[in-house]
Design goal:
- The chain has about 270 residues and is of the alpha+beta class.
- The protein has a domain of about 170 residues: Beta Barrel (Lipocalin), CATH 2.40.128.
- It is about 15% helix and about 25% strand.
- It contains three helices and eleven strands.
- The protein has a nine-stranded mixed barrel. Strands 7-8 form a two-stranded antiparallel sheet.
- A hairpin with a 5-residue loop joins strand 9 and strand 10.
């Protein structure tokens, strides 16, 4: 485009016109949209179960290979939340308690029920997700933190680092869906009768609704040694209102009953 500079007025008008075009182009360039999955989420009870145990009761049980069944038996787990000592077995030396006799199950008062989650499965707690172009960090209400790499790296070999409870995770986006592949986890049980080892892959797909108000988390556990076919189930979440939070347990540190924990009822 040629611009006449025959007069000061023509130059001024051309310059203003040029800057106006540039400004309009910049204004029309859409700003980068933050990922829809980022934010604060709380799990929902889609089948009206009212408690965690029944919330997962409709999950299709894992189909284990003979080797997987042997691993499960050796590990002492059944794929649930674990037993009194955290490994799926009740403590053999726990004293018997008579009806009406209170006893303490927590070593300290006002401790949230259960241990922090692995950053993989969820019960009724909420989670917070923050991210940039290279990383995603999941923070759960009871303190668990999980780091996911989004920079295109591959999963490390088992010899690189010792396994951990939350494993090693890499992820990428497929549209608005966040896809995460996790391996290098410590051996243990998986929901609905599953099992995992450091070689097992947990594929998670965080799928937001079009309006960004709800979220489906689909799990696929893959390990030919353990599963006859991939073990699948899903959770649903709702986006929490700004400033809100979801806790697994309410606790009043001034209430002495919080140090008591349990009063056994009469057995029928």
């Amino acid at each position: 485009m040629s611009i006449s500079i025959g007069s000061g007025m023509a130059v001024g008008t051309a310059v203003l016109l040029l800057f106006g075009i540039v400004g309009m182009t910049e204004a029309q360039t859409p700003a980068a949209k933050p990922p829809v999955v980022e934010g604060d989420w709380v799990r929902t009870d889609t089948n009206g179960s009212g408690d965690f145990g029944h919330l997962t009761s409709t999950y299709k049980p894992a189909s284990l290979t003979p080797e997987g069944q042997a691993m499960m038996a050796a590990g002492g787990g059944r794929g649930g939340r674990g037993g009194a000592n955290g490994n799926g077995k009740a403590s053999a030396d726990a004293p018997a308690h008579v009806a009406g006799q209170p006893y303490v199950t927590n070593a300290q008062t006002c401790r949230f029920g259960g241990a922090p989650q692995l950053g993989l499965d969820y019960d009724s707690e909420g989670f917070h997700l923050v991210m940039n172009q290279k990383d995603a960090v999941f923070m759960q209400e009871r303190g668990a933190v999980r780091h996911v790499y989004l920079d295109g790296r591959t999963l490390p070999t088992a010899a690189v680092r010792p396994p951990s409870g939350s494993g090693y995770s890499v992820g990428h986006f497929e549209g608005d869906t966040l896809v995460i592949d996790t391996t290098d986890m410590t051996a243990g049980t998986v929901l609905a009768g599953g099992y995992r080892t450091p070689e097992t892959h947990a594929i998670q797909r965080y799928i937001p609704s079009p309006d960004g108000k709800s979220l489906v988390l689909k799990f696929t556990w893959v390990d030919p040694k353990i599963y006859k076919q991939p073990h699948e189930y899903e959770f649903t979440f709702e986006r929490m209102a700004p400033g809100s939070y979801a806790l697994e347990t309410f606790c009043d540190a001034t209430d002495p009953l919080w140090g008591q924990s349990i009063v056994p009822p009469p057995q029928q």
